[in-house]
């Protein structure tokens, strides 16, 4: 399928209240996961999938995000003068990672509203939405698969993941039909945070979407839903029912490693897991983890 290049949209306007007081003056997306802010992992994922144009939707007091992806000449000059090439490379890397743009959401009116704020920048390009606190391990394929499925089917693509039925009420859940490809399903219905007994499956929506520009027209007329917010799920439900110019909605089932850094416990787990797997940190950490676990 021929189309204009993909762009990426990363909503990052949330208040991060679960991490107060740490997020009183720091965006939750800038909390470090080992030695990089969470949002850098997400931008790296987009770049690794071949997307160079990244728009971050920010809220009030989120200037730290823009600063992180900007150059810092005084710091770079100091590191260069000291001959600290390794740290200089890390600082310059985040500045040169992608063409990063920012737009303010204004009022926090939900994920659908945040995506709608990207309309002027995205234009008539297809685009990927990557939630800023949902990290996908770089060793596991997801976004590249989703982009390929968009090319193949000309349809909205969402990421799905099997979850414990006891936790299904925390997610948007998809009713699906099988396709001729393993781990790719056609989505027939989306249900927001159902009770376990009412859930149409155990396939939950996780924070990756590949959308066509036709979604903007739907979002413009989507009425506020739960909590007075414009829900992206409502627009996806309309697309699944045949609205828009696309070919419906399909889901890619992800079976790899995902880290929810928006939750305090999962945030700590992400740091532990990623640090333990690193060649520079793992050898020193793994024996200590075992010793510490034995004391619990």
UniProtKB/TrEMBL annotation:
Q: What is its EC number?
A: 2.7.7.9
Q: Which GO terms describe its molecular function?
A: UTP:glucose-1-phosphate uridylyltransferase activity
Q: Which residue range or ranges hold the Nucleotidyl transferase domain?
A: 7-274
Q: Which organism is it from?
A: Microbacterium lushaniae
What does the record list as coiled-coil region(s)?
none
Q: What's the source species' lineage?
A: Bacteria, Bacillati, Actinomycetota, Actinomycetes, Micrococcales
| Record InterPro entries | GalU_uridylyltTrfase_bac/arc (IPR005771), NTP_transferase_dom (IPR005835), Nucleotide-diphossugar_trans (IPR029044)
Catalytic activity, as annotated: alpha-D-glucose 1-phosphate + UTP + H(+) = UDP-alpha-D-glucose + diphosphate
The UniProt keyword set, sorted, is: Nucleotidyltransferase, Transferase
Give yes or no: UniProt keyword Nucleotidyltransferase. yes
Q: Which NCBIfam families match?
A: galU
Q: Name one GO biological process term.
A: UDP-alpha-D-glucose metabolic process
One Pfam family here: NTP_transferase
- PANTHER family, A to Z: UTP--GLUCOSE-1-PHOSPHATE URIDYLYLTRANSFERASE
The Swiss-Prot or TrEMBL record describes its family as follows:
Belongs to the UDPGP type 2 family.
Q: What is this protein called?
A: UTP--glucose-1-phosphate uridylyltransferase
């Amino acid at each position: 399928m021929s189309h204009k290049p993909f762009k990426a949209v990363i909503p990052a306007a949330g208040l991060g209240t679960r991490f107060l007081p740490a997020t009183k003056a720091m965006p939750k997306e800038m909390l470090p996961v080992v030695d990089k802010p969470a949002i850098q992992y997400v931008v790296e994922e987009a770049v690794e999938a071949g997307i160079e144009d990244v728009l971050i939707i920010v809220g009030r007091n989120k200037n730290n995000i823009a600063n992180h992806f900007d150059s810092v000449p005084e710091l770079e000059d100091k590191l260069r003068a000291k001959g600290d090439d390794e740290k200089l490379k890390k600082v310059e890397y985040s500045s040169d990672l992608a063409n990063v743009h920012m737009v303010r959401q204004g009022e926090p009116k939900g994920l659908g509203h945040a995506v709608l704020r990207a309309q002027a920048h995205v234009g008539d390009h297809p685009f990927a939405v990557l939630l800023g606190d949902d990290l996908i391990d770089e060793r596991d394929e997801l976004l590249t698969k989703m982009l390929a499925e968009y090319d193949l089917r000309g349809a909205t693509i969402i990421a799905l993941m099997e979850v414990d039925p006891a936790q299904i009420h925390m997610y948007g859940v998809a009713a699906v039909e099988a396709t001729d490809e393993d781990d790719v399903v056609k989505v027939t219905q989306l249900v927001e945070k159902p009770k376990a007994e009412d859930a149409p499956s155990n396939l939950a929506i996780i924070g990756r979407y590949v959308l066509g520009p036709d979604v903007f027209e739907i979002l413009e007329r989507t009425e506020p839903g739960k909590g007075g917010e414009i829900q992206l799920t409502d627009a996806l439900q309309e697309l699944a029912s045949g609205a828009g110019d696309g070919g419906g909605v399909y889901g890619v089932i992800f079976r790899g490693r995902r880290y929810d850094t928006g939750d305090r416990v999962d945030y700590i787990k992400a740091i532990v897991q990623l640090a333990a797997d690193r060649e520079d940190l793992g050898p020193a950490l793994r024996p200590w983890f075992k010793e510490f676990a034995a004391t619990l």
